[in-house]
Amino acid sequence: MHRRLTVRSDPPGAAVVVDGEEIGFTPVGVDYNYYGTREITLIKDGYKTVTVPFKLETPWYQVFPLEIVSDNLAFTHIRDKRNVSYTLVPEEYVPRDEILDRANNLRSNALQSEMPRPGR
Asked: Is the C-alpha dihedral spanning 106, 46, 90, 19 positive or negative?
């Protein structure tokens, strides 16, 4: 029995982290032993970071007691290949001047409000 998860992205070249372990850059594959939910994170400069749970469903031939037959008595090598693809969204950049204007407005508003004095 060979199990493999392949992660792809559009655009390719995103760093892939599966359950906290960096596995490479898309497209990339990783072997796994157990089914269940994995946390997949894709990171690429200029794009929003994507973190999603991905459930690796147990196929019917891996449910007890059938798994004994498929793992030990099958006449062929079974390959369970899973593929997942994500489209990355470009990060929105706020112009520097707009950020400075917001900061100055917040500072002005804070200075204009009267702060209560301790003990009053």
From this structure: negative
